[in-house]
Amino acid sequence: MCDDLPELIDVSVKQPENEQKDEFMMAGSKRKNRQKAKGDAEMMVEDATFEDEDDAVNEDDDMQIDKNDPVQRISFPPVAPEKLKDGKFEIRKIHVPPNRFNPLKDSWMKIYTPVVEYLKLQIRFNLKSRNVEIKTCEETTEISSIQKAADFVRAFVLGFEVEDALALVRLDDLFLESFEVIDVRRLKGDHLSRAIGRIAGKGGKTKFTIENTTKTRIVLANSKIHILGSFKNIALARRAICNLILGSPPSKIYGNLRNIASRALESF
């Protein structure tokens, strides 16, 4: 028993050293694996950056090639009006209020002549429905002609003179805009009447001043206001009218219009 004791002691002493070596080996292998994984990740990132740089260089080369190549634009031939019609004729109807029957009757030939001879359309007044009917025909060459004719007749029905409304047929940058006094401010009774009086002025002076300064035409029909002109000029006239409705004195409006007229002259 005494002889066996040293061996047992040696074994018991050596076992912890082996375990420590195994632990060191495991820790070293883990550390190596981590370093290897980190190195692999870095290599993958470098490869990706090199690939991105190569793609960018290739794209730059393609762009340079595209810039050097002549640009080829696709040109489409104009479509004939007959193909757009599809064999169908368009009809527009404009209702005429009772107070515009006599003016329409008196100015019928002035309305009929440009619509038929210039726009190549058909027009008639339906006595039963009280509508002015405009229709395209085989001689109509422009597709927008029926819209121009409808705007022309609608402007006359709203109260504009035939000569002023005819500008809608001759020019493309003219528009119609309508709004009411109550759209700007809720007024009733005498307050509404005073607002309309401020817009018109004594003997129509204020209205004529706004028309001449902004190069527009204005119609006051009870509480409705109709403006005919270009987009920019309509905006100027509408701003002046809205200020009058809100209660600004005409003298202040005259000053603003004078400044607008001076700026317009300077621009020319």
UniProtKB/TrEMBL annotation:
GO cellular component, one term: nucleolus
Xref: CDD domains: KH-I_PNO1_rpt1, KH-I_PNO1_rpt2
Record localization: Nucleus, Nucleolus
Keyword Nuclease belongs to the record: no
Alphabetical list of SMART domains matching this protein: KH
A Pfam family reported for this protein in Swiss-Prot or TrEMBL: KH_PNO1_2nd
Disordered: annotated segments: 1-42
Name assigned to this protein: RNA-binding PNO1
Organism this protein belongs to: Brachionus plicatilis (Marine rotifer)
